[in-house]
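Need tokens for this chain, all 453 residues.
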Amino acid sequence: MGRLTVFTETMAEEVLKSTPTDNQAALREAKRGILDFLASAFAGREDAGIAKLLHAIEEEGGNPITPLIAQGKMANRRQAALVNGFMGHALDYDDVHSDVRGHPSSVILPVLFALASGREISGKSFLDAYIIGVEVMARLGQAIGTGSYLKGWHNTSLLGGVAATFAGARLLGFTVAQMRNAVGIAVSQASGLRVQFGTEMKPLHAGLAAQQAVQSIEWTQQDFHGTEMALDSAIGFLHVYAGKEADEAVRAALTEGWGKSWRIAEPGLWFKRNPFCSAASHGADAALALAQLNLDAEAIEKIDIVFPPGGDAALIHKRPKTGEQGRFSIEYVVALALLGQPFTLGNFGSAAVSADAEKLMRKMFRSNDADHKPDPQAIPKGRFTIVRIALADGSVHSREVCVPKGSPQAPLSDAELESKWRESAPDLEVAERILQAIRGLENSSLRELEELL
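Here are the structure tokens for all 453 residues:
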């Protein structure tokens, strides 16, 4: 085996031989991940973009064999991956992984549901493939580092389609050669820019990545050929998107330690309690703590919001015009908290930002502090947000958060996650049946869950 194919081939071999559901922590988090994805998708089922996508796929036609989540409709596999991926990410309510700096489940799970349709797939096989997909996406995230993200690439779609292709190939029992070929097709479809944050294109990135993974699998089944050097070549994925040569650090990130632990559990997925970008979670918790002081908004002179360098890269809207843009604005999130406005789905929709929030945001100023030393337990590593409020009487009130609620170090409990699910589901009876199906998924057929969607 030559140097040029060592990463792709080694990863394919590990993907095929791994049985991650033997790890109880990984199994538990995978079932929580499926529940959280469905909660996010059901919550986003009435997003305006869904109707547009449904109209588009109705015009396309096709073989309708895969459920469109919460829609009571079916579509072909590629269409379903597109719509379900969009739906899961529509409200930015879905899970996050700090190694990815993006959203794994809204790409990986729509692919696996699509590929499983019409096939006899066990729940255990589905869970194994899902855990592996998260593993690959996290390892790719570590391998490329922060450079691509800071340049403007959106890791959810850039990495998601490739990782989901590995996962889908595992689900269908591809050979190493077939898997390498499918990944070779997938890398040429990887894309997505962060400039789209706060628009319908942002969740569409997840749907497109899922659709492209299904295409890569299906085209491989039709004997369509791509490169076998997708990850490894000096003009391949890692080098082009991140400027990474095939060095020792990249090799270790992609190939070492398979099966010792699983990244779905260590460091683990974030499950959100609020429908906005996780990069705002630290600041949201800090602002909520300050809101307990019942400060008069009119008496506030200035609000400083401090991040580590790059910590606010995802929060591209400093003066959002709508709640949708506000999902990616620390200023809007802090304003809502200080004004006593809840972090409801309605406050992060298409409606214009309120005059009170706009007025308060004008008093906010961001900065980045490279010298500040956060809590050693901070997640992601080195991450913090300080919210500092100066009042007209000269007093200053400040809060720092390094470990926000919902992160792996301060996780949502099972009860909190199940509450998120019940609040998102339109029918409590069906919600309970889906919950029970997920709880016992490793011992049943996937079809039992699929039929409830």
